Target: Uronyl 2-sulfotransferase
Amino acid sequence: MSGNFYSGSSAAIQGRKCRVCWKNHWSFKTATSRLFIHKDRVDRHLVSCPHGHKARKGSSTYLNDHGSIPPRVLPFPSQVVYNRVGKCGSRTVVILLRLLAEKHQFNLISSDIHNKTRLTKHEQVDLMKNISKIPPPFLYTRHVHFLNFSRFRIEEPVYINIIRDPINRFLSNYFFRRFGDWRGEQNHLIRTPGMKDDERYLDINVCILENYPECSNPRVFYIIPYFCGQHPQCREPGVWALERAKQNVMENYLIVGILEELEDVLLMLERLLPHYFAGVLNIYKSPEYKKLGNMTGTVRKHTPSLEALKVLYHRMRYEYDFYNFIRDQFHLMKRKIGLKSTAKPPAYAPAFLRDLALRTPQPLDEDEELDSDLEDANSWLVHP
Model:
């Protein structure tokens, strides 16, 4: 994949006398898939001063003497979206991005909206238009399910993301909601002010084995919708959502890494997007960063019983199919650029599900009306 990335010449230069705007769009194939990546659509305008600019007789202007002002060359790609998945290391990555944005002078827009991952059509268009207006180079990040820019004829950005073992993600969120992290256990009172003690101290085995809503579908069907998109069927556990999520990854994501191999993910990002991530490993390994990063770990987390794990794994069988697909794709990418895999076996992979056969039903119409009345199944997640 690394041989398919080029530098594009696009710019947005602002000066007192004139302004040059460039836009263009590219799409090309990688070794494993078709990847649609914008360059910046070329649409050049020379604008003189607001009151007009006329050269006096016998005098010359800069443009007369030198021609057009050469545009600043933007890195390619220069528009990146990280639709971060909750409890998949996103807070760690956002801390790194804040440091990198200052270092490399790109625009970082990190949304504070954590509990609205599903949007109406109107909300989708508004958000995508706002994203497209951010001065490049930029990186926009938010907890939101995949947005199909091309469906609404809006310039497509490059997507990146990170996921983790689904049960580990679930456990991290379960205990984080109740007890917070190392920044201070009292923070959980702020995040869940209406939570009663019966719920806060609910044994996770009871939650799973007695089929409490928090430990059942559709709430445990969490990762796939981030990649499937905004279609109502994307929130229903099944093969249709699974296959659409895989397709979107192959067509729209530059990289989807796994949290269990975070250092390799950062190294890949540094190689694929150096204008955003150059030096990220040095920052990540620095003592100063470790002080910040160590505050993001969930407290009081423990593992459920084997019986509960088996039940939970079965409920998450589609999530694990997707996770294994992402892990395989990530390892393939590492091999192609010469990185030795430091892969570890999945944390939870009982043999009784290895041969689970899944059949793909007929996809629904992409343009089926989105249901704006349903509440987000994961609206209780109020923090990355």
Q: What stands out?
A: The chain is about 35% helix and 10% strand. Residues 79-185+221-302+316-341 form a domain with the Rossmann fold fold (CATH 3.40.50.300). The longest strand covers residues 34-41.
